From TrEMBL, chain A:
UniProt xrefs under InterPro entries: Cyt_c-like_dom, Cyt_c-like_dom_sf, Cytochrome_c-type_DH
Coiled coil start-end: none
Keyword hit for Heme: yes
Presence of the UniProt keyword ATP-binding in the record: no
PANTHER family: BLL4482 PROTEIN, BLL4482 PROTEIN-RELATED
GO molecular function terms attached to this record: electron transfer activity; heme binding; metal ion binding
Species for this entry: Sphingobacterium allocomposti
Pfam family, one: Cytochrome_CBB3
Keywords carried by this UniProt record: Heme, Iron, Metal-binding, Signal
Signal peptide region: 1-18
Protein name: Cbb3-type cytochrome c oxidase subunit III
Top-rank taxon, per record: Bacteria
Automatic annotation (TrEMBL), chain B:
Domain of life: Bacteria
Domain Thioredoxin: 50-213
Record keyword Disulfide bond present: yes
The protein's name: Protein SCO1/2
Keywords on record: Copper, Disulfide bond, Metal-binding
Length: 141, 215
Protein backbone atom coordinates (compact mmCIF):
# COMPACT_ATOMS: atom_id res chain seq x y z
CA UNK A 1 0.00 0.00 0.00
CA UNK A 2 2.71 2.40 1.11
CA UNK A 3 4.82 1.25 -1.82
CA UNK A 4 1.99 1.96 -4.22
CA UNK A 5 1.60 5.42 -2.86
CA UNK A 6 5.28 6.12 -3.29
CA UNK A 7 5.14 4.75 -6.81
CA UNK A 8 2.18 6.96 -7.70
CA UNK A 9 3.88 9.96 -6.17
CA UNK A 10 7.05 9.16 -8.05
CA UNK A 11 5.22 8.89 -11.34
CA UNK A 12 3.38 12.15 -10.87
CA UNK A 13 6.56 13.99 -9.88
CA UNK A 14 8.36 12.54 -12.89
CA UNK A 15 5.47 13.58 -15.07
CA UNK A 16 5.51 17.10 -13.66
CA UNK A 17 9.24 17.30 -14.18
CA UNK A 18 9.01 15.91 -17.70
CA UNK A 19 6.42 18.51 -18.64
CA UNK A 20 8.47 21.26 -17.08
CA UNK A 21 11.92 20.07 -18.03
CA UNK A 22 12.22 23.05 -20.37
CA UNK A 23 12.27 25.24 -17.26
CA UNK A 24 14.88 23.63 -15.06
CA UNK A 25 14.79 26.21 -12.26
CA UNK A 26 11.26 25.69 -10.98
CA UNK A 27 10.64 23.71 -7.83
CA UNK A 28 8.70 20.45 -7.80
CA UNK A 29 5.82 22.23 -6.06
CA UNK A 30 5.70 24.86 -8.81
CA UNK A 31 5.81 22.19 -11.47
CA UNK A 32 2.94 20.27 -9.85
CA UNK A 33 0.84 23.42 -9.50
CA UNK A 34 1.48 24.17 -13.15
CA UNK A 35 0.49 20.68 -14.28
CA UNK A 36 -2.82 20.98 -12.40
CA UNK A 37 -3.18 24.50 -13.76
CA UNK A 38 -2.73 23.35 -17.33
CA UNK A 39 -5.84 21.15 -17.05
CA UNK A 40 -7.92 23.95 -15.55
CA UNK A 41 -6.58 26.39 -18.14
CA UNK A 42 -7.84 24.02 -20.86
CA UNK A 43 -11.31 24.06 -19.33
CA UNK A 44 -11.69 27.73 -18.34
CA UNK A 45 -9.35 29.92 -20.40
CA UNK A 46 -8.13 28.21 -23.55
CA UNK A 47 -11.22 28.83 -25.67
CA UNK A 48 -10.62 32.59 -25.56
CA UNK A 49 -6.88 32.92 -24.93
CA UNK A 50 -5.70 29.94 -27.02
CA UNK A 51 -3.68 26.81 -26.24
CA UNK A 52 -0.40 28.76 -26.36
CA UNK A 53 -1.83 31.90 -24.74
CA UNK A 54 -1.78 33.52 -28.17
CA UNK A 55 -5.21 35.20 -27.85
CA UNK A 56 -7.40 35.80 -30.90
CA UNK A 57 -7.05 38.90 -33.06
CA UNK A 58 -8.13 42.00 -31.15
CA UNK A 59 -11.00 40.07 -29.51
CA UNK A 60 -9.00 38.27 -26.83
CA UNK A 61 -5.57 39.52 -25.69
CA UNK A 62 -2.59 37.15 -25.51
CA UNK A 63 -1.29 36.02 -22.12
CA UNK A 64 2.29 36.17 -23.30
CA UNK A 65 3.10 39.77 -22.34
CA UNK A 66 5.65 38.92 -19.64
CA UNK A 67 5.87 42.54 -18.45
CA UNK A 68 2.08 42.76 -18.06
CA UNK A 69 1.97 39.54 -16.06
CA UNK A 70 4.82 40.65 -13.78
CA UNK A 71 3.54 44.20 -13.11
CA UNK A 72 -0.06 43.11 -12.58
CA UNK A 73 0.73 39.95 -10.65
CA UNK A 74 -1.63 40.75 -7.76
CA UNK A 75 -4.44 41.82 -10.10
CA UNK A 76 -4.38 38.49 -11.96
CA UNK A 77 -6.36 36.71 -9.23
CA UNK A 78 -9.01 39.45 -9.37
CA UNK A 79 -9.22 39.24 -13.17
CA UNK A 80 -9.84 35.50 -13.03
CA UNK A 81 -12.39 35.74 -10.20
CA UNK A 82 -14.24 38.94 -11.18
CA UNK A 83 -13.48 39.45 -14.87
CA UNK A 84 -12.13 42.53 -16.63
CA UNK A 85 -13.77 45.25 -18.67
CA UNK A 86 -12.60 48.34 -20.46
CA UNK A 87 -9.37 49.22 -22.23
CA UNK A 88 -6.31 47.16 -21.31
CA UNK A 89 -2.89 47.48 -23.00
CA UNK A 90 -1.20 44.17 -23.79
CA UNK A 91 1.90 43.88 -25.99
CA UNK A 92 1.50 47.52 -26.94
CA UNK A 93 -2.05 47.10 -28.26
CA UNK A 94 -5.22 48.37 -26.65
CA UNK A 95 -7.95 45.78 -26.20
CA UNK A 96 -11.48 46.88 -25.48
CA UNK A 97 -13.42 43.82 -24.55
CA UNK A 98 -15.05 42.22 -21.59
CA UNK A 99 -13.90 39.07 -19.87
CA UNK A 100 -16.51 37.35 -17.70
CA UNK A 101 -15.28 36.41 -14.23
CA UNK A 102 -15.31 32.83 -13.01
CA UNK A 103 -16.51 33.26 -9.41
CA UNK A 104 -16.94 29.54 -8.75
CA UNK A 105 -13.18 28.87 -8.86
CA UNK A 106 -11.63 28.16 -5.44
CA UNK A 107 -8.44 29.82 -4.20
CA UNK A 108 -6.38 26.71 -4.87
CA UNK A 109 -7.76 26.36 -8.39
CA UNK A 110 -6.87 29.99 -9.13
CA UNK A 111 -3.41 29.34 -7.69
CA UNK A 112 -2.95 26.37 -10.06
CA UNK A 113 -4.12 28.34 -13.10
CA UNK A 114 -2.02 31.41 -12.37
CA UNK A 115 1.08 29.33 -11.64
CA UNK A 116 0.61 27.76 -15.05
CA UNK A 117 0.02 31.10 -16.80
CA UNK A 118 2.85 32.99 -15.12
CA UNK A 119 5.47 30.25 -15.50
CA UNK A 120 4.50 28.92 -18.91
CA UNK A 121 3.55 32.15 -20.70
CA UNK A 122 5.28 34.61 -18.39
CA UNK A 123 8.82 34.44 -17.04
CA UNK A 124 8.03 33.68 -13.39
CA UNK A 125 9.66 30.67 -11.77
CA UNK A 126 7.61 30.83 -8.56
CA UNK A 127 4.42 29.24 -7.38
CA UNK A 128 1.43 31.58 -7.36
CA UNK A 129 0.41 30.30 -3.94
CA UNK A 130 -3.00 29.93 -2.37
CA UNK A 131 -2.05 32.57 0.21
CA UNK A 132 -1.05 34.94 -2.54
CA UNK A 133 -4.46 34.40 -4.19
CA UNK A 134 -6.34 35.05 -0.93
CA UNK A 135 -4.35 38.18 -0.21
CA UNK A 136 -4.82 39.48 -3.74
CA UNK A 137 -8.58 38.85 -3.66
CA UNK A 138 -8.93 40.98 -0.53
CA UNK A 139 -7.35 43.90 -2.37
CA UNK A 140 -9.50 43.71 -5.55
CA UNK A 141 -10.90 47.03 -6.71
CA UNK B 1 4.19 -12.93 -28.01
CA UNK B 2 0.50 -12.82 -28.84
CA UNK B 3 0.53 -9.15 -28.14
CA UNK B 4 3.43 -8.44 -30.44
CA UNK B 5 1.95 -10.36 -33.35
CA UNK B 6 -1.25 -8.41 -32.85
CA UNK B 7 0.78 -5.24 -33.04
CA UNK B 8 2.40 -6.47 -36.25
CA UNK B 9 -1.01 -7.14 -37.65
CA UNK B 10 -2.21 -3.69 -36.65
CA UNK B 11 0.87 -2.15 -38.19
CA UNK B 12 0.37 -3.95 -41.47
CA UNK B 13 -3.27 -2.97 -41.51
CA UNK B 14 -2.48 0.67 -40.88
CA UNK B 15 0.14 0.58 -43.59
CA UNK B 16 -2.33 -0.95 -46.04
CA UNK B 17 -4.96 1.64 -45.19
CA UNK B 18 -2.48 4.47 -45.63
CA UNK B 19 -1.34 3.10 -48.98
CA UNK B 20 -4.87 2.67 -50.11
CA UNK B 21 -5.94 6.15 -49.16
CA UNK B 22 -2.91 7.57 -50.97
CA UNK B 23 -3.68 5.88 -54.27
CA UNK B 24 -7.40 6.49 -53.97
CA UNK B 25 -6.97 10.17 -53.31
CA UNK B 26 -7.35 11.59 -56.80
CA UNK B 27 -10.79 10.01 -57.28
CA UNK B 28 -12.03 10.66 -53.77
CA UNK B 29 -15.43 12.33 -53.64
CA UNK B 30 -17.18 13.75 -50.64
CA UNK B 31 -20.56 12.33 -49.66
CA UNK B 32 -23.74 14.35 -50.14
CA UNK B 33 -25.38 14.70 -46.74
CA UNK B 34 -29.06 14.89 -45.81
CA UNK B 35 -32.26 13.23 -46.86
CA UNK B 36 -32.77 12.48 -50.49
CA UNK B 37 -35.82 11.79 -52.62
CA UNK B 38 -36.34 10.55 -56.13
CA UNK B 39 -38.28 12.29 -58.83
CA UNK B 40 -39.50 10.78 -62.06
CA UNK B 41 -39.43 12.69 -65.30
CA UNK B 42 -40.47 11.72 -68.81
CA UNK B 43 -37.73 12.45 -71.34
CA UNK B 44 -38.43 11.51 -74.98
CA UNK B 45 -41.14 9.11 -73.87
CA UNK B 46 -38.78 7.38 -71.39
CA UNK B 47 -39.11 7.54 -67.65
CA UNK B 48 -35.96 8.92 -66.00
CA UNK B 49 -35.42 8.79 -62.26
CA UNK B 50 -33.51 11.70 -60.73
CA UNK B 51 -32.17 11.86 -57.20
CA UNK B 52 -33.10 15.08 -55.43
CA UNK B 53 -30.61 15.98 -52.70
CA UNK B 54 -31.13 18.07 -49.62
CA UNK B 55 -30.25 21.69 -50.42
CA UNK B 56 -29.93 24.90 -48.44
CA UNK B 57 -33.10 26.82 -49.39
CA UNK B 58 -33.07 30.49 -50.53
CA UNK B 59 -32.40 33.00 -47.73
CA UNK B 60 -31.86 36.70 -47.10
CA UNK B 61 -30.08 38.08 -44.05
CA UNK B 62 -28.65 41.43 -42.94
CA UNK B 63 -24.84 41.45 -42.88
CA UNK B 64 -22.21 43.36 -40.88
CA UNK B 65 -22.47 46.30 -43.27
CA UNK B 66 -26.28 46.44 -42.88
CA UNK B 67 -26.66 45.14 -46.43
CA UNK B 68 -29.15 42.39 -47.27
CA UNK B 69 -27.33 39.38 -48.64
CA UNK B 70 -28.89 36.23 -50.07
CA UNK B 71 -28.14 32.72 -51.24
CA UNK B 72 -27.39 34.30 -54.67
CA UNK B 73 -24.20 35.77 -53.21
CA UNK B 74 -22.98 32.21 -52.69
CA UNK B 75 -23.90 30.89 -56.15
CA UNK B 76 -21.10 28.78 -57.67
CA UNK B 77 -19.05 29.10 -54.52
CA UNK B 78 -17.99 26.62 -51.92
CA UNK B 79 -18.73 28.00 -48.49
CA UNK B 80 -18.45 27.14 -44.83
CA UNK B 81 -21.37 28.05 -42.58
CA UNK B 82 -21.60 28.15 -38.81
CA UNK B 83 -23.69 29.50 -35.91
CA UNK B 84 -22.27 31.65 -33.12
CA UNK B 85 -22.82 34.82 -31.09
CA UNK B 86 -20.38 37.60 -30.31
CA UNK B 87 -20.33 37.36 -26.51
CA UNK B 88 -20.41 33.56 -26.42
CA UNK B 89 -18.06 32.47 -23.62
CA UNK B 90 -17.84 28.77 -24.47
CA UNK B 91 -17.18 27.10 -27.82
CA UNK B 92 -17.41 30.06 -30.24
CA UNK B 93 -13.94 31.55 -29.78
CA UNK B 94 -12.31 28.21 -30.60
CA UNK B 95 -14.66 27.61 -33.52
CA UNK B 96 -13.97 31.08 -34.96
CA UNK B 97 -10.22 30.75 -34.35
CA UNK B 98 -10.31 27.62 -36.51
CA UNK B 99 -12.56 29.17 -39.17
CA UNK B 100 -10.09 32.07 -39.31
CA UNK B 101 -7.31 29.62 -40.17
CA UNK B 102 -9.27 28.46 -43.22
CA UNK B 103 -10.12 32.08 -44.13
CA UNK B 104 -6.43 33.04 -43.96
CA UNK B 105 -5.37 30.01 -45.98
CA UNK B 106 -7.73 30.89 -48.84
CA UNK B 107 -6.98 34.62 -48.84
CA UNK B 108 -7.33 35.89 -52.44
CA UNK B 109 -9.48 32.94 -53.52
CA UNK B 110 -12.99 34.21 -54.22
CA UNK B 111 -14.41 30.72 -54.90
CA UNK B 112 -14.40 30.09 -51.15
CA UNK B 113 -16.72 32.00 -48.81
CA UNK B 114 -17.62 31.98 -45.12
CA UNK B 115 -20.97 32.61 -43.47
CA UNK B 116 -21.41 33.05 -39.72
CA UNK B 117 -24.99 33.35 -38.46
CA UNK B 118 -25.51 35.03 -35.11
CA UNK B 119 -28.09 33.21 -33.01
CA UNK B 120 -28.28 36.19 -30.62
CA UNK B 121 -30.85 38.15 -32.59
CA UNK B 122 -31.36 40.50 -29.62
CA UNK B 123 -27.84 41.81 -29.11
CA UNK B 124 -25.85 41.14 -32.30
CA UNK B 125 -26.91 44.05 -34.51
CA UNK B 126 -24.94 44.73 -37.73
CA UNK B 127 -22.71 47.26 -35.95
CA UNK B 128 -21.87 44.75 -33.20
CA UNK B 129 -21.10 42.16 -35.87
CA UNK B 130 -18.94 44.68 -37.77
CA UNK B 131 -16.84 45.46 -34.72
CA UNK B 132 -16.50 41.74 -33.97
CA UNK B 133 -15.41 40.94 -37.55
CA UNK B 134 -12.82 43.71 -37.52
CA UNK B 135 -11.38 42.60 -34.19
CA UNK B 136 -11.25 39.00 -35.40
CA UNK B 137 -9.17 40.14 -38.39
CA UNK B 138 -11.75 39.82 -41.17
CA UNK B 139 -11.23 42.59 -43.70
CA UNK B 140 -12.93 41.52 -46.92
CA UNK B 141 -16.37 40.38 -48.09
CA UNK B 142 -15.42 36.69 -48.27
CA UNK B 143 -16.59 36.21 -44.70
CA UNK B 144 -20.11 37.41 -43.97
CA UNK B 145 -21.57 37.80 -40.48
CA UNK B 146 -25.35 37.88 -40.53
CA UNK B 147 -28.35 38.48 -38.34
CA UNK B 148 -32.06 37.92 -38.89
CA UNK B 149 -35.27 37.18 -37.07
CA UNK B 150 -35.24 34.34 -34.58
CA UNK B 151 -37.52 32.34 -36.85
CA UNK B 152 -35.29 32.78 -39.92
CA UNK B 153 -31.97 32.10 -38.17
CA UNK B 154 -33.15 29.09 -36.18
CA UNK B 155 -35.04 27.86 -39.23
CA UNK B 156 -31.98 27.95 -41.47
CA UNK B 157 -29.86 26.28 -38.75
CA UNK B 158 -32.13 23.26 -39.11
CA UNK B 159 -31.46 23.20 -42.85
CA UNK B 160 -27.73 23.09 -42.12
CA UNK B 161 -28.52 20.24 -39.68
CA UNK B 162 -27.12 22.28 -36.77
CA UNK B 163 -28.91 22.35 -33.41
CA UNK B 164 -29.53 25.82 -31.92
CA UNK B 165 -31.71 26.88 -29.03
CA UNK B 166 -32.32 29.85 -26.76
CA UNK B 167 -31.60 28.43 -23.32
CA UNK B 168 -31.06 30.48 -20.18
CA UNK B 169 -29.22 27.53 -18.58
CA UNK B 170 -26.51 27.47 -21.29
CA UNK B 171 -23.36 29.63 -21.08
CA UNK B 172 -24.24 33.04 -22.54
CA UNK B 173 -27.92 32.15 -22.87
CA UNK B 174 -27.84 30.10 -26.07
CA UNK B 175 -27.18 26.44 -26.67
CA UNK B 176 -25.80 25.41 -30.03
CA UNK B 177 -23.47 23.02 -31.82
CA UNK B 178 -20.06 24.14 -33.04
CA UNK B 179 -20.20 22.59 -36.47
CA UNK B 180 -18.47 24.06 -39.48
CA UNK B 181 -20.71 22.96 -42.35
CA UNK B 182 -19.20 22.58 -45.81
CA UNK B 183 -21.55 23.56 -48.66
CA UNK B 184 -20.84 22.91 -52.32
CA UNK B 185 -21.45 24.99 -55.48
CA UNK B 186 -25.01 23.62 -55.61
CA UNK B 187 -25.93 24.43 -51.99
CA UNK B 188 -25.64 20.81 -50.91
CA UNK B 189 -24.08 19.76 -47.58
CA UNK B 190 -20.85 17.86 -48.18
CA UNK B 191 -19.45 17.68 -44.65
CA UNK B 192 -19.88 18.83 -41.06
CA UNK B 193 -16.88 19.21 -38.76
CA UNK B 194 -16.65 19.96 -35.06
CA UNK B 195 -15.06 23.41 -35.08
CA UNK B 196 -13.53 22.85 -31.65
CA UNK B 197 -11.70 19.65 -32.60
CA UNK B 198 -8.28 20.06 -34.26
CA UNK B 199 -8.41 16.73 -36.09
CA UNK B 200 -11.80 17.49 -37.58
CA UNK B 201 -10.67 20.95 -38.62
CA UNK B 202 -7.67 19.36 -40.39
CA UNK B 203 -10.13 17.04 -42.14
CA UNK B 204 -12.16 20.06 -43.21
CA UNK B 205 -9.06 21.65 -44.75
CA UNK B 206 -8.43 18.44 -46.69
CA UNK B 207 -12.05 17.99 -47.80
CA UNK B 208 -12.29 21.62 -48.91
CA UNK B 209 -9.37 20.99 -51.28
CA UNK B 210 -11.14 17.91 -52.66
CA UNK B 211 -14.40 19.79 -53.12
CA UNK B 212 -12.72 22.65 -54.98
CA UNK B 213 -11.37 20.18 -57.55
CA UNK B 214 -14.84 18.78 -58.18
CA UNK B 215 -16.82 20.32 -61.00
Amino acid sequence: MRKNLIAVLGVSVTYALAVYSCQPNVSIETAQYAVNGQKLYGVHCQNCHGAKGEGLGMLYPPLTDTAYLATNRAALACIVKNGLEGPVIVDGKTYEGAMPGIPQLSAVEIAYILTYVTTRFGNSTNTYSQDEVKEALEQCQ
Amino acid sequence: MIKSSFHNYLGALLFAVTLHSCTGDSQKKLPIIGERATEERIVDGQTVVDTVYHQIPPFTFLNQDSVLISDKDFDNKVYIANFFFTHCPSICPTMQRNMLKVYEKYRGNHDVAFLSHSIDFKYDSPSVLKSYAKKLGVDDERWQFVTGTKKDIYGIAEKYLVYTKEDSAAPGGYDHQGYLVLIDQNKRIRGAYDGTNDEQVAQLMEDLGILLKEQ
